Amino acid sequence: MERMRTLERVVETRIDLLEWESPAPKEDCAACRALDCDIIFALLFTMVIACLLVLIMVFWLKGVLQYEDTNYVAREHLWQSSLRSECDRVFDEKNPRGEFQFPLLPKEPTDNSIEKNITLPRNLQCVYTFVAGPRQRVKLEFEHFHLAGSSESCEIEYVDIYSELERVESDLLSASLGGRYCGTVSPHVRISLHRVLVLVFHSRAREVDRQFGFRGRYSFIPDTKYQAGIPLNGEDGCDFLIEASKRKKGAIFSPTYPGTYPKNFHCSYLLKGRAGQRIRLFFRDFDIYFGGEHCPYDSVTIFDGPTTSSPIIKKVCGLQQRTELYSVGTEALIHFNTTNPAKADPRGFVVEYEFSSRFVDVAQLLHGQKGVTHMRGTECDVRVESNRETTHYIYSPKYPEMYPPNTTCTYILDGLQGDQNLEKVILTFEEFAVLSDDDSAIVVTDPLSLDDITCPAAWVGIAISDATMKATLSSTDESNFESTLCERIPSSSPLRGPYVSTGPRMVVQFGTTDKLITDGLHPSGFKAKVEFKTDFGVTGESIGTSNECLFRFRSPMGFFNSPRYPANYPLDTNCTYFIEGKPGQQILIHFEQFALYVGKDEDRCKDWLEIYDVFQDSGDERLVLQERYCSDTLPGPTVSAFGAYAMRVVFSSDSTGSGNGFKALYEIRPAAKEDIPSHETKEPRGEGAYRCGRRIRASETTPTGFVMSPNYPVKYNKDVHCDWEITARDGYRILLTMVKMEIEGEMTASKAHCQKAVIRVSGAPRPEYCGTNQNVFTPFVTKNNSVRISFLTSPDKVNGLKGFNMSWTEVREVKEMSECSSSSEYMCTYSKLCISSMLRCNGDANCGYQDDTDETHCARVQSSVYGSLSLLFSNSAMHQPSITTYWLVAVSSILLTVCCANNGARKESSTDKTIVIAGVFCGGTFLFICIFFCYLFKSKLERKKKRQRSHGSRHRHRQPYRSQKPVGKSIADSELPSPATSRFVHHDATGILPPITLHTIADQDQTFYG
């Protein structure tokens, strides 16, 4: 029995051990624990009940509607039958005028239920047939139109109109459809092409509002006005012959005017006048579908002759009002062609015609001149074109006889305008007698103000500016001219001209009213000479021939430019600009634009500009070149040399390429009293620039110095002119080094744009310096013992930077060290320059380009900041950095970043808030993500530690099979009482204590074996 009891206990112990070694069951998700089957079943059951209720409601509503529909249809069956029997209608000549409408209803029933809506049969079709009498047309005008649908989609209800039917029995299915309409946009006035017009109403609606339908009036009108002349292809055709012998005046109507004209249709009208007559066409009303500028769809084409091979006067479409056209000869042909374009209702046209011999004779007006042509389609408009510096004449109509009344002639004078040619127009009247006042004795002899001249009966207007010419060519009713002339003007009067255009074109207009005035003298009208001269587009006084680019400027201020500026200058051109002042004056030139042709590097000076100072020596001119400028340099401000009161600018281009050219402004101002100021001054010198600068002489005690712009390092001002002259001792030269340069402009190794401010140094490698990169100024030694430095700013507005600081050093070039062995001298190692020993270790590099040997091996006091940083890093290297140190570095970095951001934010626009908002949003998002992941990570660590503690409490230490401890003694495990421990040690087969957790012990007895 005792052995069986011991075996039972061993089995129990083994079972507990297996349970402890088996893995813990996985934890269900929170959602699964929160929900159970009862809740899920309740939710599904509720959804099923809701769906059933919705279905019941839908079927109930459908039954109610079907019931009402059936009841309503039953009550309306009588009215539908009546409606079918009265739907189709025929209107004939018995009633030449009347009304038509839909719906057509008998007496309204007394039941109020159908007062608002009416019910129509399915697929209802009503046909309204209009039949006019012989030689009549049908005209329809709609007063009310309201059908279902829209003009873009006619599916439920619509009206079809057939207006091109020849017979009542015509098949509508094969007939041409004139248009389909629905919605609220009613059809335009419709006129039939023949005697018959059919209107068909279609409806698929079951119930419509009573306001739906249409209403209109019809009438039968005679078709006499549509017979423009003699029919050429039968009475039903649309080709007519109109002869002056039958009718001198008349009108041509499009086939169905004012109704919408037929599609895919063609009409022609041939007009024939008598010998000596011309034909005038006036478009009183014109509305043809506009499909583009060249009228690719519907159009009216007028030919200046009897066939389509004759010259075209004009091809028109769209809307035209009060258009007037003239033929040159006695015949004209009009073609009207239509297609099937997008949906539109154009009404067609009405063109009035007139045959007359009173119109201006074109041949007599031109006088057979080459380059003078008549503008086709006009009565007497003339265009005069240059053939490169040619001369022509223009005349009034019938000159030298009396001009005709009610005539307006426009003369367009066009000079050459192209890449290589640009001309101006010079107009001079040789004869002028255009009378406009009843007092025929008036003769204009004095050069009156042109604004005081009034010409009510006849006039000659001259348009020179672009705006005036545009207004004159677009309308002749209210034209304003720069000059208006009339009456008889003698040859000595300056009113005869010359009148010079500002561009390549000038417009002259001659006009008369129905009242003609004559003085009995001969000739009448005018004769004018038109000359075309080369125009360089320069405003100065021309001092050469017409094809020479020579201009003089003497006004106190002004501008000059390259030929044709701002357009590209012509190739192979040479221009000279003479800017002349008086003794005691000085000339300032500054450039507003400078863009010469940019070719390859070796071709950079194919086009160039040179500036010269002009000196007068005993009546002889002496030119001294200031500088030549090519495509890589924008010249800075410049002044004439001291003693020169004239300047000359020469521009030259070759045949390689062209650019926009240049525009320069000049001022003639009082000259300076001294070439180099005796002392530096910032006082203004009268009407000119601020004058500053001085003479500097090097000496043994002053072997070096600095030249600085005014107010350096504060901003310089506009209109500054400074000159410095540095002179070294005999045998010495000057070394110049740029210490700092902040001058407006841009300068690189290959180009310089010094438009607003410039530094010029005589003998320097480059003629001008500007910009903010002082490295472009390479230190150099002058060729003699003196150098001149100039600083100029534009008289216009300048931004004003800090300016410049340039150092100079007196040096002596030697070949051997023995030549610079004195104790008062120092020999530069690389540049081989001998400088004063006073300059050794003075803090400035005085040995020249890439030679700083005079400043090497000199003690230097290091900056306290760098020393502090070195101490900090040296201490950091000796000790292990702590976490506090890392935190300090991080906080410092953040503070530094914030300071830099604030400093940069001050420079940004206050309105730029988008970046700030985006930054705050991104920062908040990033912070949220970081906090969220930190929380997850913390929760995971806590769960892991909790599992470890639980696992440790359940672990049992393996014990030996035979314990050496005395039986009955207590062991270290306080969870088991001593007797139980003794029994287990002697009878357990494994020697391992079963896992007994604290919470298990608390819920059971304190002894392992009961």
From TrEMBL:
Instruction: List the residue ranges of the region (Disordered).
Output: 946-977
- Key words, A-Z: Disulfide bond, Membrane, Transmembrane, Transmembrane helix
InterPro entries the UniProt entry points to = CUB_dom, LDL_receptor-like_sf, LDrepeatLR_classA_rpt, Non-NMDA_GluR_Accessory, Sperma_CUB_dom_sf
> Which residues are listed as membrane-spanning?
39-61, 915-937
Span of domain CUB: 87-221, 238-356, 380-533, 549-669, 692-811
Q: Which domain of life is it from?
A: Eukaryota
| One cellular component term from this protein's GO annotations in UniProt | plasma membrane
Specify the signal sequence span.
none
Q: Where is the composition biased (Basic residues)?
A: 946-960
Q: What is this protein called?
A: CUB domain protein
